[in-house]
Amino acid sequence: MNITTDRRCRNARRLEQRIREIGVHAGRLAARHLGGRLPPVEIILTDGNGVARLIQDADLALAGHTSWQRRAVGRVIDRWHARHAFAATALTASGALVAINVSHNSDLRELDRTLIHELGHTVQLSAPGARNQHIAYLRQQYGITTHNKVDQREYERLIDVREQQATNLEALARQLPNH
Question: Residues with Cβ < 8 Å from 93, sequence gap 6 or more?
Fold first, then answer.
């Protein structure tokens, strides 16, 4: 688990230290509860705009080449949503990226819940077949492949199920050291 802090984020040292303290344990809890494995994870502490930029860049890299118009449309949609998120997770070529919005996670208990939630998403996305399914969904969303509404609705229902599973993981944060 690699942890870095975006240069724009001052006063994130305490959060970074907490993630170093509990990150591996939180990942094990999530993997054990979901019955999967934790992929290689890069965690970046950043602000809301950084979350949006990092996640979109990772998604675009995974989806493949897109024209600048598609990137611009995606950037408007993704940035508005991700700027207000506590954190977000994306697949990368080598594993997964978790971008944590430091402005929403100043309380260490909230950070613990956010971290285990997002690590749960990394486990979900590393399940057999999940990576290829997610890449196909991204390619449809960015207009690289033909848009199939039935597949899109089915995958978005799966996203809702995964979100509920990750939300349920947040209760496990009480098992983390010094919570």
Answer: 61, 62
Report the alpha-carbon distance of residue 27 to residue 31 in Å, rounded. 6
- Residue 145: C-alpha distances to residues 57, 137, 158, 166 (Å): 18, 9, 20, 29
CA distance 94 to 127: 14
Q: In b/e form, how buried is each residue of 27-53, taking b as 16+ CB within 10 angstroms?
A: bebbbebbebebbebbbbbbbbebbbb
At a CB cut-off of 8 Å and minimum separation 6, what does 152 contact? 137, 140
pTM of the complete model: 0.90
How distant is the alpha carbon of residue 68 from its chain centre? 24
Residue 57: strand, helix, or coil:
helix
pLDDT tens digits, 35-67: 999 999 999 999 988 888 898 889 888 888 656
